[in-house]
Design a protein that fits this description.
The protein is an alpha/beta fold. It folds into two domains: 121 residues, NAD(P)-binding Rossmann-like Domain (Rossmann fold), CATH 3.40.50; 172 residues, Dihydrodipicolinate Reductase, domain 2 (2-Layer Sandwich), CATH 3.30.360.10. The protein contains 13 helices and 14 strands. The protein has an eight-stranded mixed sheet with strand order 8-9-10-7-11-12-13-14. Strands 3-2-1-4-5-6 form a six-stranded parallel sheet, with helices on both faces. Helix 1 packs across helix 11, helix 4 packs parallel to helix 5 and helix 9 crosses helix 12.
Length: 354
């Protein structure tokens, strides 16, 4: 890398990939040298617009270049092997959430990244949203006593999604994995991993047999963190719930917190608001901030730690996989047991990191 510029490529040019590309192009530390997507016309258009090389073959992008960073937005069903190839060529990887389709796949990415001594980070923009930063600071300052309930609502308004995301084998999951990942990350980041999880999910297919072949559109997840702390997540793609909305609520003995994308509210047990902060940051600014953090973790690793590394994101994947297993077994599942099972299968990289 020359003059503190990270030679960078974007893998996947869907909505998320374009958003990453725009944010990376605004960060001085990145030099976008190439983009790749299966859509030839789209690649030509974007490559011309950003004055960089364009590829419609992911494999050739990796083989023919030596990048410092690969920003991944493409579906893993189409590029998991190329991500591993890039890691083995010492490319640092930033992956749009989720990091993988299942725990085993996530652990394999982390294992390779650690062996090759490169960064593997997950894009969790909520960690850089001012409202969620306010939540974390409030909790770290212990301004909320005796927390007994955490609730989350994740509505995605019924907007369209790629065809492959309807297929459990290609996608790995539905609304929980792809639309609730950041909210789950906030719950795991600010609190502990739950002891037990019970989950129900469904989709719009007309009969039970058809539902087996589609990812979920609606999910209810109940979590037991301890004997005195519980949590739940309600997630849906139902248009009737309105547009995209992600809200986290934390209930304590005397105060309650409500956090959304741009608001942080403190109220008492009767619902009276004692503090309300409204912020003007947006998704572009959050992605720019996370990319700046990712770049600094590569350029100055001794002074800058990546804020959302692949290893710490494993607990999110364990929670999600536990929820999916519970929905299949109709029984509560224990995330720690999922970890132990993965370790027995030879993926013992979690040691000392709970």
């Amino acid at each position: 890398m020359a003059a503190n510029k990270l030679r960078t490529a974007i893998l996947g040019l869907d909505k998320g990939g374009i958003s990453l590309l725009q944010a990376a192009s605004s960060v001085d530390s990145f030099e976008v040298q190439a983009v790749a997507d299966k859509d030839v016309k789209l690649v030509e258009k974007i490559a011309s617009e950003y004055n960089c090389a364009g590829y419609d073959d992911y494999r050739q992008l990796i083989i023919q270049n030596q990048f410092d960073c690969l920003l991944v937005a493409a579906g893993l069903y189409s590029c998991d092997e190329y991500i591993k190839m890039a890691m083995k060529k010492k490319f640092n990887i930033l992956k749009l959430a989720p990091p993988a389709r299942n725990v085993e796949e996530a652990m394999e990415f982390v294992r390779i990244a650690e062996e090759e001594q490169i960064k593997f980070a997950i894009a969790n923009p909520c960690r850089f949203a001012k409202s969620f930063v306010a939540l974390r600071e409030f909790l770290q300052e212990k301004q909320l006593e005796q927390i007994f309930l955490i609730t989350a609502l994740c509505s995605v308004g019924g907007e369209g999604r790629s065809v492959w995301q309807n297929d459990p084998k290609l996608a790995g999951g539905g609304v929980l994995l792809y639309n609730c990942y950041e909210i789950i990350d906030q719950m795991m980041w600010n609190f502990s991993m739950p002891q037990q999880i019970y989950s129900l999910n469904t989709n719009v297919a007309s009969d039970k047999q058809q539902r087996l072949y589609l990812t979920e559109d609606t999910a209810i997840v109940t979590m037991k963190f301890s004997d005195t702390l519980f949590g739940n997540i309600t997630a849906s793609r139902c248009a009737a719930l309105g547009g995209e909305e992600k809200v986290l609520k934390v209930y304590g003995k005397e105060k309650n917190l409500t956090v959304s994308s741009n608001k942080f509210i403190v109220s008492d047990s009767s619902g009276r608001v004692s503090e309300e902060r409204e912020y003007d940051d947006d998704q572009f600014g959050r992605e720019k901030a996370l990319l700046e953090n990712f770049a600094l973790s590569i350029l100055s690793p001794d002074k800058n730690k990546v804020l959302s590394g692949g290893r710490e994101n494993l607990k999110n994947m364990v929670v999600i996989e536990s929820a999916y297993l519970s929905a299949r077994t109709s029984m509560p599942e224990e995330p720690d047991r999922i970890l132990q099972m993965a370790q027995r299968e030879g993926m013992n990289i979690w040691a000392g990191h709970k």
